[in-house]
Amino acid sequence: MAIKWIHRTVLVITLLSFSLLAFYLSTAYTQQNTPQEVPQQGAPQQHAIPLQILPKDNAGNVDWVKSLNQGIIKPLESLDPNKPSTPVIDLDIVFKVKGDLPDVVYPHYPHTQWLACSNCHPKIFIMQAGANKVTMKKIEEGQFCGRCHGIVAFPLSNCTRCHSKPKR
Ligand code: HEC
Ligand code: HEC
Ligand code: HEC
């Protein structure tokens, strides 16, 4: 009889300590992941910018690259003010396309204004021209350029923004 009670007490204590631990972990997690007040350093704009005032691309969508270059928007590099800024490189890669369709120019410059090298290299693209077997089908299936274009960057329906280098 006494042994049974000891067992029960031990079980109850174990369960209690597990739930306490779970509670502690969940509050610690929420605290860590609650967005903190962004420090005023670098004066981030708190008000929304109406999309109508932003420049548009050839398809009538917001041209985020122009918006940045014209200084209309100034995105923070990171929510963490201590994170070092990421480098920008000016390197165009041409993907030759069979047939009459213009070749694709992949420009590093505008991408590295928004993204770090590690956002693409080496998981999405091996860092070597011609090393990735990119096709339009794979892009449409969400690989390579399609990891972002059509999701967070301008849509795949805008053929000529990528196929921008006419053959003649
Ligand atoms: C948005 C994606 C993306 C980002 C971000 C990116 N790259 Fe690339 N990079 C590419 C693509 C696409 C290629 C061409 C791959 C191919 O031809 O198969 C490439 C190729 C390269 C090459 C090979 C060039 C050659 O001639 O062989 C180098 C070097 C390179 N990138 C460096 C960088 C560095 C450094 C950064 C960060 C400053 C960076 N890349 C950021 C997409 C990216
Ligand atoms: C985000 C950039 C991007 C957009 C937008 C885009 N393409 Fe492509 N496309 C590529 C790349 C990169 C390749 C690979 C080039 C190669 O063959 O090496 C390619 C290849 C192709 C090819 C060659 C054959 C194949 O399947 O690989 C065709 C045809 C093509 N695209 C048609 C289109 C059409 C039509 C549209 C618009 C509806 C379009 N693309 C929009 C990037 C793009
Ligand atoms: C990791 C995400 C990512 C990948 C992968 C990616 N892009 Fe982009 N791309 C962006 C973002 C973000 C922008 C800027 C926002 C916009 O224009 O919609 C952009 C802009 C562009 C622009 C506009 C440049 C300008 O000067 O206006 C071109 C062209 C382009 N991408 C082509 C490509 C091609 C071709 C590939 C594949 C070889 C590719 N991108 C892969 C995220 C990506």
What's the total count of β strands? 2
Q: What are the low-pLDDT stretches, counting only 5+ consecutive residues below 50? A: none
* Helix and strand sequence: HHEEHHHH
| CATH class type of the domain at 51-162 | Alpha Beta
Discrete helix count: 6
Quaternary class: single chain
How much strand content do the residues show?
Answer: under 5%
CATH architecture classification of the domain at 51-162: Alpha-Beta Complex
What is the helix content?
25-40%
Spatial strand arrangement across the major sheet: 1-2
Terminus-to-terminus distance: 94 Å
Taking the sheet with the most strands, its summary is: 2 strands, antiparallel
The averaged pLDDT comes out at 86
Rounded to an integer in angstroms, the radius of gyration calculated over CA atoms is 25 Å
User: What form results from the Cα inertia axes?
Assistant: elongated
Model description:
The chain is built from 6 helices and 2 strands. It is mainly α and about 170 residues long. It has a domain at about 50-160: Cytochrome C3. A two-stranded antiparallel sheet has the order 1-2. It starts with a helix and ends in a 6-residue tail after the last helix. It binds heme C (3 copies). One heme C binds near residues 125, 128 and 129. One heme C binds near residues 124, 144 and 153.
What's the quick description here?
The protein is mostly helical and 168 residues long. The protein contains 6 helices and 2 strands; from the N terminus they run H-H-E-E-H-H-H-H.
